Amino acid sequence: MDQYGGETNIEQLELTLYLFVVLYAPSLALEAVAGIPLSASILTTGIVCTFYTSLGGLKAVIWTDVFQSVIMVAGLITVVIVGSIEVGGFDQVWQINKKYNRLNFFDFNPDPKVRNTFWTLTLGGAFTAMPVWTVSQTAVQRFLAIRSFKDARRAVWMNVPGLIFIVTLCCLDGLVIFAVYADCDLGVQKKITSNDQTLPYFVINKLGHLRGVPGMFTACLYAGALSTASSALNAMALVTLEDIVKKRVPDITDANAAKLCKVIALSFGVIVIGGAFLVKYVGTMVLQLAYSIFGICGGPLLGIFFLGMFVPRANSKGAYFGVFTGAALTTWVFIGSVLYPPDKYPGQRSVQGCDFYIDAVRANRTFPNGTYNHESARVLDKWGDGLINNNYQGHSAAIADFYSMSYLWFSGLSVLTSFTIGIIMSLVLETKEDKERVIDPKLLFPLKEWLLSFLPGHTFKWDIEEEEEKMTDAEGMPIHQDELKINWDDAPPVDPGDKEEKHEMADTKL
């Protein structure tokens, strides 16, 4: 953003909307697990998180994130182990999911309306995750807290195995829970009011007899919510302080800035608590809603960063047009997807193991004409063989098909729109001052040199890396100016004549 000479608050908007979902999701689950009212859970979670974030700062946030991550992983592993035992082993889990078409890893259907395909998960998922790991304030704040660029890059690579491990555990949890309830769909039984309550229902239904497990799961839910919310609140407060307050009050003292930062975090916490109550009216799953927010806000932000990195003639006017156009288009598509919900996942569900279906089948066998039990006849007429097929049928209106775009493509759509509109408007609205503006080369990505590095005999190193290497010692520690000391023992001998001449020159100046 330095290249454009302006400021933007789209990151605060993204984090605020995302925190609405973050507070709502565990509250919805706790309603199913512990019977805590949704409103009370939202208030409790929001107040606790806002309190310790305001008092502790970044250090408290990082250490609580570490502890909460351990709790989260423990809860996910417990669900996999106990659920697999319930079904009869993980082999049985795998076979059940295969039977109901839940293991189609290589679906190369290019249709963007299909929710999960190979292309949607790889390309669409990459664009969805990229803003979170590259330009979001929560990530950048942690990178800047690391002592060097090299260590920051090492931290990212070290994070990859852990992230893959956690995502894999979440997928395994989904497979296990589906296998447990494969013969009797929870939604049909009215056991849950939202698919987001499936996991907490499983914990109470299958793990409730194990002392401490429901409590650990509740802690797992809170850990995930608090770690994310605290990081976002801290980042939002710092961005507001640095990009808004200090630009208008540059002489603010550090002590007053620290106090003001806590007040800002507290204010954002109040806003987030209020917004979390509105999420239930959106009518979509939590994960889909979160990724849609990344697309609406994070996608345009990534698009204008690409614009600044790869287009030297980009300017602030083009960037603003690009970011607002990308956000507006993606918001329009998201609202359309809420009004015209996309078709469900094309896999089978079953009620063959439900008590009401089993009773109906038994009654029909005893009285084939179905006259003995009208309820049994009605059940069999409605459910047939007990298998429910979710097939894509499309919509009557062409615009509704556009709204059916998979939520994982939202970010890619907004990135492409912001980048393209940004280039066009930068060229159209370019002024003489824009043409004469000198851009720091470190703000531009040397694309040509990077492409040439793939050829034999060519190497690539960005200027920022070379500059950092000059300012670090052999162990990679940063060298500050006040640490640069002269070793007089290794200095060359000084000619006495030169020394006397310098003293005379000094006396003359005095």
From TrEMBL:
GO BP annotations, alphabetical order: inorganic ion transmembrane transport; sodium ion transport
GO cellular component assignments: plasma membrane
Keyword Endoplasmic reticulum: no
PROSITE patterns: NA_SOLUT_SYMP_1, NA_SOLUT_SYMP_3
Transmembrane residue ranges: 12-30, 36-58, 70-90, 117-135, 156-181, 216-239, 260-283, 289-311, 318-340, 407-429
Basic and acidic residues composition-biased segments: 496-510
Compartments reported by the entry: Cell membrane
UniProt topology in membrane: Multi-pass membrane protein
GO molecular function: monoatomic ion transmembrane transporter activity; symporter activity
Recorded catalytic activity of this chain's protein: iodide(out) + 2 Na(+)(out) = iodide(in) + 2 Na(+)(in)
Disordered as annotated region, ranges: 482-510
Protein keywords: Cell membrane, Glycoprotein, Ion transport, Membrane, Sodium, Sodium transport, Transmembrane, Transmembrane helix, Transport
Pfam families the UniProt entry points to: SSF
Family membership: Belongs to the sodium:solute symporter (SSF) (TC 2.A.21) family.
PANTHER family assigned: LD47995P-RELATED, SODIUM-COUPLED MONOCARBOXYLATE TRANSPORTER
Protein name per its UniProtKB record: Uncharacterized protein
